Amino acid sequence: MHKKMAFSFPDEVLEHVFSFIQSDKDRNSVSLVCKSWYEIERWCRRKVFVGNCYAVSPRMVIKRFPEFRSIELKGKPHFADFNLVPDGWGGYVFPWIVEMAGAVPWLEEIKLKRMVVTDESLELIAKSFKNFKVLILSSCEGFSTDGLAAIAASCKNLKELDLRDCEVDDLSGHWLSHFPDTYTSLVALNISCLGSDEVSLSALERLVGRCTSLKTLRLNRAVPLDKVANILRRAPQLVEFGTGTYAAELRPDVYSDFAGAFSSCKELKSLSGFWDVVPDYLPAIYPVCSKLTSLNLSYATIQSPELIKLVSHCPNLQRLLVLDYIEDSGLEALASSCKDLQELRVFPSDPFGVEPNVSLTEQGLVAVSSGCPKLQSVLYFCRRMSNEALVTVAKNCPNFTRFRLCIIEPRTADYLTLEPLDVGFGAIVQYCKDLQRLSLSGLLTDRVFEYIGTYAKKLEMLSVAFAGDSDLGLHHVLSGCESLRKLEIRDCPFGDKALLANAAKLETMRSLWMSSCAVSFGACKLLAQKMPRLNVEVIDERGPPDSRPESCSVDKLYIYRTVAGSRFDMPPFVWTMEDDPSLQLS
Amino acid sequence: MSSENGKLLPETDAGGLNFEATELTLGLPGESRVTSDGVAKLGSKRGFSETVDLSLGDNKNTNKFGQSQIDVPEAAKSPVSKAQVVGWPPVRGYAKRRTKSCKYVKVAVDGAPYLRKVDLEMYNTYQQLLTSLEDMFSCFTIRNYLSDKKLDQVNGIEYVPTYEDKDGDWMLVGDVPWQMFVESCKRLRLMKSSEAVGLAAPRTPPKCSSAS
């Protein structure tokens, strides 16, 4: 007898069930179950995430998911943040907007990271999507305040405009005034990246005043302290606030105005901004500190004693971004005051100085790891480290999901033993079984990669610089890290052998970046031939790679899987390996 | 950094290709390319990538699987200041900013199809800026325009760092005190030496920056 398994649920029921499944990974899994689930799922997927805009074409996405309402796209590789990707490399959003303008008129959300966004793109968005609600541009560039004016003028239902860390061309237009007087639906506005003189204060005040649902407001430096009070008073319901510039002579009337406005904001949970902050103004924010869960002081050039006072007022802090002015002593205070701390980022105040300018060492990190049991995510810049400290941190924090350590001088050894830091990082990957993201630094041999390949089974992203001895290092990572999606490497002696031996692995990953390593042009060609579903991009500003011997190393290499084939928008300094003898120049 | 016998060139190597002479060293006038113990100065490329680039076709870097012999040059440190490696430490503009806003200027190189951008606020001295430009445009030889030495013309074209100031005039880099330069510089251009004739020459040799 043949027992037939049939799903007797109607499609609508399945669709309803699927609507509770939000994560892309789960949705992707759902679509693999069977053909009918694939069909149902693709018609009801509302949010699409494309981790690499060149991995797929906009048409393919639209064809598979005809009814999506939200799209998230990422463009340039992460190392673009540090000037390693030349201007003009790519990551243009315009082709996506064009395709979606025609086919997805009900699009509501666009989230972009590291993409080039032109005013033309913004204008097309403003024109094409009648129900457009959310625009989040993270580390994007290529647009000006003209483009923003178009969005402001046309998007009647806009709720969120977030320009985090973007480079915006200063055209000094009063773009904020383009929000019509009838427009009141703003919930989140982040203009912290705008340069000076780009914001019309009176327009801002009126906008804030009439948008009574505004929850997030991150101002830019152009907004002076005495104007902040006016704005805050119009938005006492704010949950997240970024101050403008804090620089001001201490004047009692300004101070009390400011303090008064702050104390009327009973819902504040997150603060940022603090450019040029003068310590005397800090007590104005103490009344809101007890509710704060997130504090970004990475622009605040205040010293350790003031920082200690501030954090000791914030017992509910979960997230802290701060400069290394906080010093070890400040981190010890943090460890004793903020038991709910989950994420800590300590940035260098003087990254290019040779000598330490502050007393921030591995001790601060150890203190926080010991005092904050919920600590999960760390980004720490410092100038010395020891294996002993790393082992202690690893044992204290087995729940780490993100651990990024940057010892400022490349190849710095354990300062106590002068040995490599292999054992210390080895302990991190061994104890922190859920580690998803890791950045290495200091003196490291192939051994650390052996540890990583052996233990870091949940690791998804690894960043490596000035480390390793040989191809074995790379081989350990590529062959051992089962969950690896993104690998970025610079200035390491990794070459052809490990790459070619693990070619198939590359198709299971989103991307691999290698710059100033030892991968030859010949190997790149071979890899591209072997793996047709990888784009192997050689980025070399010295001229065509075939004008040099094949054994010559390429400058930069970016490899990513794709179902869209070679891209059409490559600049002259990017070569992909094609099968035909003449290199393709786009 | 002290001034050595800036006029002397290092020895050519046996192959006749004078790598050091054609090596990029943007320097301020009067500075030598080599320190007294003969080690290549900071201004030249160093580190792993240098070893690779200078040994074209030479597989000394990896002889067999797993065994590489990387010769990291020792000359990576100076006690006073250090040359900046591009993109290291990995800090973004916003994290570096302390009191002033970014001062991004575009950098064009004659004959190159691409532009780069640098943030002048990132540097404290001309030397730091020029070193960073070297790293970015590593295929070009940039000439120390104020020294009289005749560089080996093996590589042919040399480039002179110039900038456009607030008044729209093109000036030679190194002309004015550093901070004044940062404030007035609108963009940079690495101009071919032959075209740089006629640009305003500095009236006095700029001092080595003491503020590093």
TrEMBL record, chain A:
Give the superkingdom in one word: Eukaryota
Pfam families given for it?
F-box_5, LRR_6, Transp_inhibit
The terms describing its cellular component in GO are: nucleus; SCF ubiquitin ligase complex
Keyword Hydrolase recorded? no
Query: GO BP, one example?
Result: auxin-activated signaling pathway
Keyword Phosphoprotein on entry: no
Annotated pathway = Protein modification; protein ubiquitination
Q: Which CDD domains does this chain map to?
A: F-box_AtTIR1-like (cd22159)
Where is the F-box domain positioned along the sequence? 9-50
Where in the cell does this protein reside? Nucleus
What are the UniProt keywords, alphabetically? Auxin signaling pathway, Developmental protein, Nucleus, Ubl conjugation pathway
* UniProt cross-references to Gene3D superfamilies, sorted A to Z: 1.20.1280.50, Ribonuclease Inhibitor
The molecular function terms of the Gene Ontology recorded here are: auxin binding
- State what protein this is by name: TRANSPORT INHIBITOR RESPONSE 1
Q: Which organism is it from?
A: Hibiscus trionum (Flower of an hour)
The organism's taxonomic lineage, starting at the top: Eukaryota, Viridiplantae, Streptophyta, Embryophyta, Tracheophyta
From TrEMBL, chain B:
Q: Which Gene3D superfamilies match?
A: Phosphatidylinositol 3-kinase Catalytic Subunit, Chain A, domain 1
Task: Tell me which SUPFAM superfamilies the record gives.
Answer: CAD & PB1 domains (SSF54277)
* Chief subcellular location: nucleus
Q: Name one GO biological process term.
A: regulation of DNA-templated transcription
- Please state where this protein is localized: Nucleus
Q: Which domain of life is it from?
A: Eukaryota
- Which GO terms of the cellular component aspect does the record hold? nucleus
- Which residue ranges does the record assign to the PB1 domain? 102-193
Q: Which InterPro entries match?
A: AUX/IAA_dom, AUX_IAA, PB1-like
Q: Keywords on this record? A: Auxin signaling pathway, Nucleus, Repressor, Transcription, Transcription regulation
Q: Which family does it belong to?
A: Belongs to the Aux/IAA family.
Q: What is annotated about its quaternary structure and interactions?
A: Homodimers and heterodimers.
This chain's function reads: Aux/IAA proteins are short-lived transcriptional factors that function as repressors of early auxin response genes at low auxin concentrations.
Q: What is this protein called?
A: Auxin-responsive protein
